[in-house]
Structures are given as C-alpha cells and as structure tokens.
Amino acid sequence: MSKVTKCMCEECHHNNNFKCTADGIEVRSSGDVRVQTADGTACNTFKTQQR
After folding, report:
1. How far apart are CA 15 and CA 32, in angstroms?
2. How far is the C-alpha of 30 from the C-alpha of 10, rounded, in Å?
3. Domain range for residue 25?
4. Overall number of domains in the chain
5. pTM of the prediction?
6. Which of 21-41 are b and which e, b meaning 16 or more Cβ less than 10 Å from the residue's Cβ?
7. Phi and psi of 29, rounded to 5°?
C-alpha cells in the first residue's frame, strides 16, 4: 500500500505539520455518478481535529 505523505487539510486530525499520520486512507466518490476530477472525491478517513 502506498504511504500518504502530504496532507493539505489543516482541519484534519491526521494532519501533523502537513504530513498525514493515518495508517492508510479511504477515498470515495462524493456523490458523482462518474468521477472525472479530484473535486468529485472525498477522503473518508477525515476526522475533525479536537481543539
């Protein structure tokens, strides 16, 4: 499995100084019938940071 090395979502719990600390991620379509761009995807591993 590929290791995710970069995370630009500052609100994600798994983001540590723009490095992803999740063991793995799950990416799904975000409702599009057929995904054709990154805008049609969503990281299902996202978890909101506790502040």
Report:
1. 26
2. 20
3. 1-32+39-51
4. 1
5. 0.74
6. ebeebeeeeeeeeeeeeeeee
7. -70, 150
